[in-house]
Design a protein that fits this description.
Elements (H helix, E strand, L loop, with lengths): L2 E6 L4 E7 L8 E3 L33 E5 L16 E6 L10 E3 L4 E2 L4 E2 L11 E3 L7 E7 L2 E6 L3 E12 L5 E15 L14 E3 L2 E6 L4 E6 L2 E4 L6 H7 L11 E7 L4 E7 L5 E7 L4 E6 L5 E5 L2 E6 L2 E4 L11 E2 L2 E2 L3 E6 L7 E3 L1 E6 L3 E9 L5 E3 L10 E4 L11 E3 L5 H8 L7 E4 L3 E3 L2 E5 L20 E3 L1 E8 L2 H4 L7 E5 L2 E3 L3
Antiparallel strand pairs: 1-5, 2-3, 2-4, 6-9, 7-8, 10-11, 11-12, 12-13, 14-15, 15-16, 16-17, 18-19, 19-20, 20-21, 22-23, 23-24, 25-26, 27-38, 28-37, 28-40, 29-36, 29-39, 30-31, 30-38, 32-33, 32-34, 35-36
Length: about 500
């Protein structure tokens, strides 16, 4: 039943008292019973004496007076009437949380000085409710004359300053209206933003966000909702979005638009402090890059991309420091690419070489051939073209052991000073990749343990056996020393023969 809440607006009174402070005259008013003496307040004399040089004697029982909070009482009146009394009738006196509803206030106009943002008139229809079964409202985004509403399990749009009128056949027409928020129109598809409004990013008419409850990364554009996690990453997001949080510990998902590279950057930060940061590119309709930084926020201003980490703002793609490539938040990490060679599917093969087209500075850290689910072949690491360079001179030895000098970029003019020999017939060779006609080649040397039935294995044989091979290639240590020189990788391949094993 309705509750009647009585709100009293009676006239109020404050009881004041005056006291005599040591070495001070006249006595001062004590406000609200505090022991301090207020400044700038006239004194009050409860008793006067003719001798103005002597502080008056204060009668403690008579040094009280009453202060009225409103100008209601008249001079020397014997009584005072009650003030205004108001009654408020509320159908539901208990507090309620309407997480799937909207409410709007009065207008704000800085030019005219009108500010009614604190006015919520119950006499007007100022609420708009959505289906509570689809979860709470997590994100609002205004676009032109539409308000996009992201619930946990649904995305809707509401008309602003207009409404939709529907015919008997179900067709709709938009008309002008004095409504602030008009009809709610859902987007096709049972997707929402779950509880991750931080994953939202926008560029142009494209909005990006995640729906972890459905293991999906979404794009909302002019043609509706699209599940962009289907572009080659279904398994990845299915396995990782569901493990962001546990019942007791919460992870988070951070999204942002990188206007410099035109990519949607998404950082999955799990409850155990591990993370994956990757990007989606509309040009390739895929997820081409992973990064080694963990942002707290990500956003673009004008033509620059920024992230926040540990309370500091960092600008990405900044060219005016050296070195600056593969360095995030002051920490350098080599750039790497992992790919799979799988020619002639289901045939057992021996991979003999690894070749690539691009710039110098790439090394192979892992080449693994899958012979079965339990048994793999591996190769020795392969140094880059620059790092694997060495010099051979048959007339010079080092400690009477050999005549090889690794990583010694010596020009002929410096040779006499270093070796004491003028213009010797030395040779430059390469232990890792070597270059031929603008392409880099290297042989694969086996580094696996022997198994039953194998005649030769390990370093005594070349090649890596397997149905397919997984390869990781990364920039070498000279990349950082080179001061931000770009390392490009266009294509990679491997020569192989069918295995007779």
């Amino acid at each position: 039943m309705p509750a009647v809440v009585e709100v009293k607006f009676y006239n109020s009174f404050l009881l004041r008292k005056t006291v005599v402070q040591p070495n001070q005259a006249p006595p001062f008013i004590v406000w609200n019973g505090s022991p301090g003496v207020p400044q700038g307040i006239d004194g009050y004399f409860p008793q006067h004496t003719e001798d103005t040089t002597t502080p008056p004697v204060v009668d403690r029982d008579k040094s009280w007076f009453i202060e009225e909070s409103r100008i209601e009482g008249g001079y020397n009146e014997t009584e005072m009437l009650y003030g205004v009394k108001a009654y408020l009738v509320d159908e539901e006196p208990n507090a309620s949380f309407r997480t799937s509803s909207l409410i709007y206030s009065g207008i704000f106009n800085s030019r005219t000085g009108v500010n009614d943002t604190n006015v919520f008139s119950v006499g007007e229809d100022i609420t708009k409710s959505l289906d509570p079964a689809l979860g709470s409202i997590q994100k609002l985004y205004a676009e032109d004359t539409n308000l996009i509403i992201f619930q946990e399990s649904k995305v809707n749009r509401a008309l602003i300053d207009k409404d939709a009128i529907y015919s008997a056949e179900g067709g709709g027409a938009v008309t002008s209206s004095n409504l602030v928020v008009g009809a709610i129109q859902p987007y096709a598809g049972n997707y929402g933003i779950s509880r991750d409004p931080q994953s939202f990013a926008v560029y142009g008419y494209r909005k990006y966000f995640t729906d972890r409850d459905r293991n999906a990364v979404m794009r909302l554009s002019q043609d509706g909702l699209t599940e962009i996690s289907n572009y080659g990453m279904v398994d990845y997001f299915r396995d990782n979005l569901v493990t962001i949080s546990t019942n007791s510990r919460q992870g988070k998902i951070i999204g942002g638009w990188d206007i410099y590279t035109k990519q949607y950057v998404l950082s999955l930060q799990k409850y155990d402090n591990t993370y994956d940061t990757l990007s989606f590119d509309e040009q390739v309709l895929g997820w081409p890059s992973r990064f080694t930084y963990k942002p707290e926020q990500a956003f673009s201003i004008k033509n620059k991309f920024y992230t926040i980490n540990s309370g500091s703002i960092w600008q990405h793609n900044f060219e005016n420091i050296t070195p600056n490539r593969s360095k995030f938040y002051g920490t350098y990490t080599p750039s790497s690419v992992t790919f799979i060679f799988n020619p002639n599917v289901s045939a057992s093969k021996v991979f003999k070489t690894i070749n690539y087209e691009g710039s110098s500075g790439w090394e192979v850290t892992s080449f693994e051939g899958a012979r079965s689910f339990e048994l793999n072949d591996t190769s020795l690491p392969i140094t880059s073209y620059d790092e694997g360079e060495y010099i051979v001179d048959p007339r010079v030895t080092v400690n009477n052991l050999d005549n090889v000098y690794y990583n010694t970029p010596i020009v002929p003019a410096d040779y006499e000073e270093v070796f004491g020999v003028e213009n010797p017939p030395y040779s430059r060779l390469y232990a890792g990749f070597y270059k031929k006609e603008g392409k880099y080649f290297a042989n694969l040397v086996n580094n696996s343990s022997g198994t039953v039935g194998e005649v030769a294995w390990g370093g005594s044989m070349s090649g890596v056996k397997g149905y397919y091979s997984t390869v990781t290639i990364q920039t070498d240590a000279l990349t950082e020393e080179a001061g931000g020189v770009a390392r490009e990788l266009f294509a990679a391949s491997s020569e192989y023969v069918e295995s007779s094993y």
